[in-house]
Structure formats: structure tokens, C-alpha cells
């Protein structure tokens, strides 16, 4: 029976190898951390949007599609067209 025992020990040691998805998960986490470290300044730097809000650069495109920003643009356009109509 010692043969079977040694076989099972071998199996156990095989299972100790980190499954691919766990290894992969760790790699992705490290890559994300690395990306954050390298781009920290870019990610955290906020620029003032024309609507007056401070938005981080990577959120800007998304922000420009938000209601808040769209409403601002509408307001500006309305003011513009009103100015164009009045004669001073
Ligand atoms: Zn905006």
C-alpha cells in the first residue's frame, strides 16, 4: 500500500501548484497597482471643466455626457442665441 500512498503524495504536491486563474488574478492586480502608481498623477489631477466642475482627466469624457454638463451646454447655447437676437 505504500505505492498508493506515495502516489497520493505526488498528487497533493501537484495541487500545490497555483492554479492559473489565481496566478493570473494576482498578475492583473499587480498590473493594476503598477498602472495606478505610474499614472497616479494623471488619474488624480483634476482639470476644470467648462461647466465649472473639477473632473479628473480620465473621467472627463464620461462627465461630458452627464446631465449636469449637458444642461450647462444648453444654458450657454441659449444665452448665446439670446445675445445674438438682441441689438445693443
Ligand atoms: Zn462639464
Structure description:
The protein is mainly alpha-helical and 88 residues long. The chain has one domain. Helices cover 74% and strands 7% of the residues. Strands 1-2 form a two-stranded antiparallel ribbon. A hairpin with a 5-residue loop joins strand 1 and strand 2. The longest helix is centred in the middle third of the chain and has 25 residues. The radius of gyration is 29 Å and the shape is rod-shaped. It starts with a helix and ends with a helix. 0% of the residues are buried. The mean pLDDT is 81. The structure holds zinc ion (ZN). Zinc ion (ZN) binds next to loops.
SSE order and pairing:
Blueprint: H1 2-15, H2 20-44, E1 46-48, E2 54-56, H3 57-63, H4 67-85
Antiparallel strand pairs: 1-2
The total domain count is 1
Number of strands: 2
**Main β-sheet: number of strands, strand sense, barrel status?**
2 strands, antiparallel
Strand content: 5-15%
Low-confidence stretches: none
Cα distance, first to last residue? 104 Å
Q: Tell me the number of helical segments per DSSP (H or I, 4 or more residues long).
A: 4
Bound molecules: zinc ion
Provide the succession of SSEs.
HHEEHH
Which structural class fits the helix and strand makeup? Answer: mainly alpha
Radius of gyration from the alpha-carbon trace, in angstroms: 29 Å
Strand arrangement within the widest β-sheet reads 1-2
Mean pLDDT: 81
User: How much helicity do the residues have?
Assistant: over 70%
Gross geometry: rod-shaped
Amino acid at each position: 500500500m505504500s505505492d498508493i500512498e506515495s502516489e497520493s503524495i505526488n498528487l497533493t504536491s501537484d495541487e500545490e501548484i497555483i492554479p492559473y486563474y489565481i496566478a493570473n488574478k494576482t498578475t492583473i492586480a499587480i498590473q493594476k497597482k503598477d498602472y495606478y502608481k505610474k499614472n497616479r498623477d494623471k488619474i488624480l489631477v483634476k482639470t476644470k471643466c467648462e461647466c465649472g466642475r473639477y473632473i479628473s482627466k480620465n473621467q472627463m469624457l464620461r462627465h461630458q455626457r452627464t446631465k449636469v454638463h449637458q444642461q450647462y451646454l444648453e444654458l450657454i447655447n441659449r444665452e448665446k442665441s439670446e445675445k445674438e437676437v438682441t441689438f445693443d
